[in-house]
Amino acid sequence: MSCEEAGDQVILATASYDHTIKLWQAHSGICQRTLQHAESQVNAMEITPDRQLLAAAGYQHIRMYDINSSAPNPVINYEGISKNVTAVGFQEDGKWMYTGGEDCTAKIWDLRSRNLHVSRIFQLNAPVNCACLHPNQAELFVGDQSGVIHIWDVKTENNEQLIPEPEASIQSIAIDPEGTYMAAVNNKGKVYVWRLSGGTGDTPITLTPARSIVAHNTYALKVKFSPDSTMMITTSADHTARIWKTADFQQMTELRDSNQRWVWDVAFSADSQHVITGSSDNLARLWSVETGEVKREYSGHQKAVSAIAFRDVLFPCS
User: Fold this and answer.
1) Cα Rg for the chain, rounded, in angstroms?
2) What is the DSSP string of 275-309?
3) Separation CA 132–CA 285 (nearest Å)
4) How far apart are CA 100 and CA 57, in angstroms?
5) Under 8 Å between Cβ of 243 and 235
6) For residue 307, which of 272, 281, 277 has the smallest C-alpha distance?
7) Residue 140 in contact with residue 130, Cβ under 8 Å?
8) How confident is residue 77, by pLDDT bands cut at 50, 70 and 90?
9) C-beta neighbour count of 114 within 10 angstroms
10) Which of 89, 159, 176, 184 lies deepest, with the highest CB count within 10 Å?
């Protein structure tokens, strides 16, 4: 497969405090389209499983953009939300979307009609920073500013709580694709890892503490697992992203650039060989996981890159 052919199947979107979203040709670094998001910054983005729509979560709204059209404006708008929407994601078949927000709720949205409506609401006692769906598509892990991780069964609406460190805000949660590990990072730079078991059929999920690591010396911002489940990456206000081996949770690579500032978001390529970061120096960067080298810069935003959405098949071009 040539770079050009692969590029047709790769979707890389970056959002910025400059109130735009840019769609890039990932292998070349060329910006293909700029979408307008005039009313606020974008807090989180996700691409629908069918690769047709891009969801952008902002202040008091969610916008959906048609990835394959040339229109710069959203095709679906949902306004009726108070405060910031901080998390967005999709059930694997695209039947529903989940969101979390500073209104102290997580919500499930029925997507089977284009008139978005909320089918379930989970009320919390603190603003929501992040949410992550278990690979079994049944439990939503929700992190809040008071330091609580909520495990919400979206079918039965049962919920459980974990508090790894009281009053330390949960900034990001990730579950590896095999459903083996769950990780959470907090505003003190720590990453907590649990081993997961169960979660199939009627067997409830069991979480066993596996590791706690001082990953960064200040705010941690994001945590993600690689598609092959062998690595975990954390990003921080300390201007770095760090890659950890899941075999022993030892640090493998540090991604550092002299101009890089807060690293707000990160995504792995499908082959787990590259990561893309977005940071406060207005750039997104493509890095080699193995060497820690910058392979590509995506330059065009006028302010900090606050969110990334990335879907690819494989990433053959470095």
Assistant:
1) 18
2) EEEEETTSEEEEEETTT--EEEEEE--SS-EEEEE
3) 24
4) 9
5) no
6) 277
7) no
8) confident
9) 8
10) 184
**Residues whose CB falls within 8 Å of the CB of residue 290, separated by 6 or more in sequence, listed in order:** 253, 273
Residue whose entry in the numeric block shows the structure tokens 């750039």: 283
Residue 282 has a CB neighbour count (10 Å cut-off) of 20
Query: What tens digit of pLDDT does each residue of 198-208 get?
Result: 877 778 889 99
- Length of the chain counted residue by residue: 318
- Is the model's pTM score more than 0.85? yes
Q: Name the amino acid, one letter, at 245.
A: K
Q: Rounded to an integer, what distance in angstroms lies between the CA atom of residue 63 and that of residue 110?
A: 15
Alpha carbon of residue 309 to chain centroid: 7
150: CB partners within 8 A, 6+ apart:
106, 122, 124, 141, 142, 143, 144, 159, 160, 161
Residue with tokens 């807060």: 262
Q: What is the pLDDT of residue 1?
A: 39
Nearest to 60 by CA among 45, 41, 73: 41
